[in-house]
Amino acid sequence: MSIQNNRLSDSEYRLNFEDIHPPFETREGALVEANRCLFCYDAPCTKSCPTSIDVPTFIKQIATDNLKGSAKTIFDSNILGAGCSRVCPVEKLCEGACVYNLLEEKPISIARLQRYATEPAIQEKWPLYPRKASTGKKVAVVGAGPAGLSAAHVLARNGVEVTVYEKEAKGGGLMTYGVAAYKVTPEFCQDEVDYILSVGGIDVKYNQELGKNVHLSDLQQQYDAVFLGIGVGIARGLDIPGENLEGVVDAISYIYDIRTKSFQEVPVGDKVVVIGLGMTAIDAATQSKRLGAKEVTIVYRRTENEKPCTDEEVDIARLDGCQFVWLAAPKEVIGQNGKVTHLVCSKMKLGEADASGRRAPVDTGETFTLETDMVIKAAGQIPFENLISTNGLVHKNGKVTIASDGSTNLKGIFAGGDCVNGGKEVVDAVQAGKVGAGSILKYLEL
Amino acid sequence: MANIQSNFLGIKSPNPFWLASAPPTDKKINVMRAFEAGWGGVVWKTLGSQVKNVSSRYSAMDIGGQKIVGLNNIELISDRPLELNLREIREVLKEFPDRAMIVSLMADNDRKSWHEMVKKVEDTGAHGIELNFGCPHGMTERGMGAAVGQDPEIARMVVEWVMEVATIPVITKLTPNVHSVVPAGRAVVEAGTNALSLINTIQSVTGVDLDTLVPNPNVGGQSVFGGYCGPAVKPIALKMLTTIAQDPLTAKVPVSGIGGVSTWKDAAEFLLLGASNVQVCTAVMKYGFRIIDDLTSGLSNWMDEKGFEKLEDFIGKSVPKMTHWEDLDLNFHVTAKINPDACIHCGLCYIACEDASHQAIAKKDGFPYNDYTVKEEECVGCNLCKLVCPVADCITMEEHRVAPEYLNWPEFQKRGLPLNDH
Ligand SMILES: Cc1cc2nc3c(=O)[nH]c(=O)nc-3n(C[C@H](O)[C@H](O)[C@H](O)COP(=O)(O)OP(=O)(O)OC[C@H]3O[C@@H](n4cnc5c(N)ncnc54)[C@H](O)[C@@H]3O)c2cc1C
Ligand SMILES: Cc1cc2nc3c(=O)[nH]c(=O)nc-3n(C[C@H](O)[C@H](O)[C@H](O)COP(=O)(O)O)c2cc1C
Ligand code: SF4
């Protein structure tokens, strides 16, 4: 057993990381699907989209060959509409609410149609948003993730001069550095960021980190308002013995490697154990398997009924050949010569419902041991609590506290996205950026 | 099993489905294939004097991904040599003696030409003749086709010429490009035609190409009005058919129903409104002859369900149900009812009634599904909600009579009853 890279041939890597939801190949295909849409009124799909995209309208616009209108309908609500069409867990959002489900029929492929309308906009750089004349107002946005970009776009197109401070070398946030490689490519992320910036009036300063070379107090002085969209950090620690052994890795850093290096360069174990069952855990498990791990086991402390991810995501992992061990909590990592060899787990059972409404796992006192050479921690992410509290922002366990309009306790400072909700989806972050920017415009009396 | 054999003026065919005079019937190969597939009869593509067709001939209207809801053509009558057509008609008759063979004619506008044409066709052994008084393009400029059918007196004259020599049944095909088909219908019945058929195509422009700005179909950068047919024209054809069935004079002769027949249901409707058989063109141009299987079995199964043993049991049965507006019962009142178990919460009924009818549907907001109920006292019973509802039988129209007795408009006025208050 060992952790190694370069396990597969180039073509195997390519096949394993191919687009998981391929687009419509032809206009006819898209039209057949678009024409199936009933054009519901006060549509359940729209209500179930966190950014409230007017789904029936954009689909009707596809059906009438008004593709520009369609893309604009989508972007008006969600400037990351192209990215969202690839990464949104639609089975629990728009498509899950499609009325066809109630007829026991396949829901409209909303995401695929959304991709059909937005992709040409990005590829052909359709200038859908003429920028309003400059208002002379200046706003700083920290973080070029979905929340920050969404806020920046709303502000810029309304004539605000926006400066974005981003600690990484590229924009997109977790879209670029987190989401599974079989959903989006680095090129796509770059194109999407470029398209958003093409509205003008947005200056992105890369490799600038708040708390290191940028300070909130300075931003407060130099700008009329600030929007914080810094997301959350690495995966939560396990707080168990053996956590520092070689072979125990944090899912976020591990996926960061997958997204920034070539697949050949990323090492993976023979027998991988993933701890947790959120989107991150699924992505860590499936991508380990696709990198060539022989066995991948997902360990979760509750049962499938209480899982935080969707059925669709569990299905992807199952189809990839990942195993699941339910009702198991990690107790100790055991190693030899400083390297992981085993994971000891406590057997759990379900007790009373907890605050989330799901039945909570209770330790039965029994344990069992799994053989492994790589343990991936994916049980939630840790907010940037230190950065947030030292700057005097009110927060809860590191998650910034905001009012419904996105304002924080500090005057002129707004926040949204993962840094507020603790880690949800891209689409929630886009909505938060939109709301925050709208409030900033009001605050600036624009 | 129901007997769907048809007898039209003594011309027998195994079923009431004939192919209308058009491209599917313009030569031996097609007609042979049609008969092999099971079609009951054909009306051979119109024969007449020599013509020349243009290239690019058809255009269509598509709706919501449905192709060819309506078809438009600028073709003329048969452009093949007359002798070739006549020879092939003879050959087909020999191979399929049990099928109806009608030949469509459009002669030059003089007595001699018509006499000659009728004789030539009779020589082939064909069972009947159809007079094409309907073609709306190309031929009218020469005083033929619709130019004949639009003027009852010219139509009468031509039919009289034909009847002077014809020894086989003569069907006169009417044009719909008139305010009413009844005057021409009456004139040709008086002149002795044995039967009528309707409708021919309706003048139309299906659309304009939004790149070139040339209307369809594009013939070298120009276009002309064409003839419209297919499913889109069925309601108009049915209306015209009904007026022929209602008129005491035209009702005396059998009618061959044409215009948008695509399914056995369409055919049943044509027969219920007075047609003795139907002719089909566009549906075959779109799908080929193979649709005959469903046409025949669907009609026969429906007849079994309704207890009709033969076509005559229901031909014309719906005609008496068409009345005058002032004879309708004003005390008859229906209101919509939404079945909450069948409802899929699409909201289409709500927005239709709210924006375009009587604001009679209440919306209770929910996430993500709203609930919709009918405000019975506001509902006028227009059917709109039921028509837009995508779920069959989710919305039903329930009868709530205003009063038990029948009350028509003249009586309503006589009694000075109050008009609508909303
Ligand atoms: C592994 C994984 C897979 C996921 N898969 C999906 C998916 O399939 N679909 C989906 O909808 N969501 C998915 N998510 C969640 C989604 O990526 C996030 O909800 C979303 O990206 C949040 O956007 P954000 O802008 O709030 O934060 P982020 O995307 O985290 O962006 C924050 C940005 O701020 C920058 N930043 C952070 N700190 C500083 C600082 N101090 N100074 C300057 N810049 C800073 C970061 O570099 C980053 O660019 C996934 C998340 C993970 C971790
Ligand atoms: C391309 C084309 C050519 C036609 N040619 C003739 C014709 O030569 N003679 C005629 O009487 N009707 C002609 N028609 C009309 C059809 O016979 C028929 O009346 C009409 O198409 C309505 O029937 P449908 O809706 O089933 O197509 C033609 C129709 C089409 C589409
Ligand atoms: S029948 Fe007409 S008025 Fe009555 S609820 Fe339906 S749409 Fe409204």
Describe the overall structure:
The complex is a heterodimer of chains A (446) and B (422). In chain A, the strands form four sheets. Chain A has a five-stranded parallel sheet, with helices on both faces. In chain A, strands 5-12-6-7-8 form a five-stranded parallel sheet. In chain A, 36% of the residues lie in helices and 18% in strands. The mean pLDDT of chain A is 96. With 422 residues, chain B is of the alpha/beta class. Chain B has two domains: 316 residues, TIM Barrel; 91 residues, Alpha-Beta Plaits, CATH 3.30.70.20. Chain B is 30% helix and 20% strand. In chain B, α8 packs across α10. The model of chain B has no long low-confidence stretch (mean pLDDT 96). Classes of the chains: A alpha/beta (446), B alpha/beta (422). The interface between A and B is medium-sized, with 20 and 17 residues.
In short:
Chain A has 446 residues and is of the alpha/beta class.
Task: Please describe the structure with a list of short key phrases separated by commas or semicolons.
heterodimer; A: 446 residues; alpha/beta; Fumarate Reductase Iron-sulfur Protein, Chain B, domain 2; FAD/NAD(P)-binding domain; 3 domains; 5-stranded parallel beta sheet; 18 helices; 15 strands; globular; B: 422 residues; TIM Barrel; Alpha-Beta Plaits; 2 domains; 8-stranded parallel barrel; 4-stranded antiparallel beta sheet; 13 helices; binds flavin-adenine dinucleotide; binds flavin mononucleotide; binds iron/sulfur cluster
Biggest protein-protein interface? A-B, 20 and 17 residues
Query: What's the tally of helices of chain A?
Result: 18
Mean pLDDT of chain B: 96
Roughly what fraction of the amino acids of chain A lie in strands?
15-25%
Describe the secondary-structure layout.
The complex is a heterodimer of chains A (446) and B (422).
Chain A: H1 10-16, H2 27-36, H3 44-48, H4 55-63, H5 67-77, H6 81-87, H7 94-97, H8 110-123, E1 138-142, H9 146-157, E2 161-165, H10 174-177, H11 186-197, E3 202-205, H12 216-222, E4 225-228, E5 248-250, H13 251-260, E6 271-275, H14 279-290, E7 295-299, H15 311-319, E8 323-325, E9 328-336, E10 339-353, E11 359-371, E12 374-377, H16 385-390, E13 395-396, E14 399-400, E15 413-415, H17 418-421, H18 426-443
Parallel strand pairs in A: 1-2, 1-4, 2-3, 4-15, 5-12, 6-7, 6-12, 7-8
Antiparallel strand pairs in A: 9-10, 10-11, 13-14
Chain B: E1 6-8, E2 11-13, E3 17-19, H1 28-37, E4 41-48, E5 58-63, E6 66-73, H2 82-95, E7 100-106, H3 111-123, E8 128-132, H4 146-149, H5 152-165, E9 170-173, H6 182-190, E10 195-198, E11 202-204, E12 226-229, H7 234-246, E13 255-258, H8 264-272, E14 277-280, H9 282-287, H10 292-306, E15 334-338, H11 348-356, E16 361-364, E17 371-374, H12 384-388, E18 395-399, H13 409-414
Parallel strand pairs in B: 3-4, 3-14, 4-7, 7-8, 8-9, 9-10, 10-13, 13-14
Antiparallel strand pairs in B: 1-2, 5-6, 6-12, 11-12, 15-18, 16-17
Helix pairs in contact in B: 3-5, 5-6, 8-10
The structure holds flavin-adenine dinucleotide (FAD), flavin mononucleotide and iron/sulfur cluster.
Iron/sulfur cluster (SF4) binds next to α11 and α12 of chain B.
